[in-house]
TrEMBL record:
Function, as annotated: Removes the formyl group from the N-terminal Met of newly synthesized proteins. Requires at least a dipeptide for an efficient rate of reaction. N-terminal L-methionine is a prerequisite for activity but the enzyme has broad specificity at other positions.
Note on how the cofactor is bound: Binds 1 Fe(2+) ion.
Name recorded for this polypeptide: Peptide deformylase
HAMAP family on file: Pep_deformylase
Organism of derivation: Luteimicrobium xylanilyticum
Cofactor field: Fe(2+)
Keyword Metal-binding found: yes
InterPro entries noted in UniProt: Peptide_deformylase, Peptide_deformylase_sf
Active site per UniProt: 133
Length: 162
């Protein structure tokens, strides 16, 4: 197990959709251990594999003292009439927080290291985390979801950081 370095913009791995995990081998097991160890740090709610440089569909979370992971996650349900608006940040875009609208509830299905089906769901912070990390695996960042005026402000702030 290892605490891994977080990739930040403009690293192209963050904009590349991740591949499905087709074979659960020692490499995937080590990836999950690294995801769990790396997310287990103060201020970290979630971590996608591409944020540590691995383009495979896996992420970990650390919400309300619960740490977990899911392989090949897909969002299968979002609340359609309940939303949350709040500042969102990202380990790969350090120091920047912007209001991001997300569904209040999210449900993700995937598999575990034994290949068994896993369902992860939640509201509020957990719902936001599931959406945020799944976006990462699709090559998206929360910045892509900002409304036009806020996104312009965010891009300016990001350029000033780089």
């Amino acid at each position: 197990m290892a605490m891994r370095e977080i990739r930040t913009l403009p690293d192209p791995v963050l904009r590349t959709p991740c591949a499905e995990i087709t074979d659960i081998d020692d490499g995937v097991r080590a990836l999950v251990e690294d995801l769990l160890e790396t997310v287990d740090d103060e201020g970290r709610a979630g971590l996608a594999a591409n944020q540590i440089g691995v383009s495979l569909r896996a992420f970990s979370w650390n919400i309300d003292d619960e740490i977990g992971y899911v392989l090949n996650p897909r969002i299968v349900e979002l609340s359609e009439d309940e939303y949350q608006d709040g500042d969102e940040g990202c380990l790969s875009v350090p120091g920047l927080w912007f209001p991001t609208r997300r569904a209040w509830y999210a449900r993700v299905e995937g598999i575990d290291l034994d290949g068994k089906k896993v369902v992860v769901e939640g509201t509020e912070l957990m719902g936001r985390c599931l959406q945020h990390e799944t976006d990462h695996l699709d090559g998206m960042l929360y910045l892509d979801r900002l409304d036009r005026a806020v996104r312009k402000k965010a891009m300016r702030a990001l350029r000033e950081q780089l």
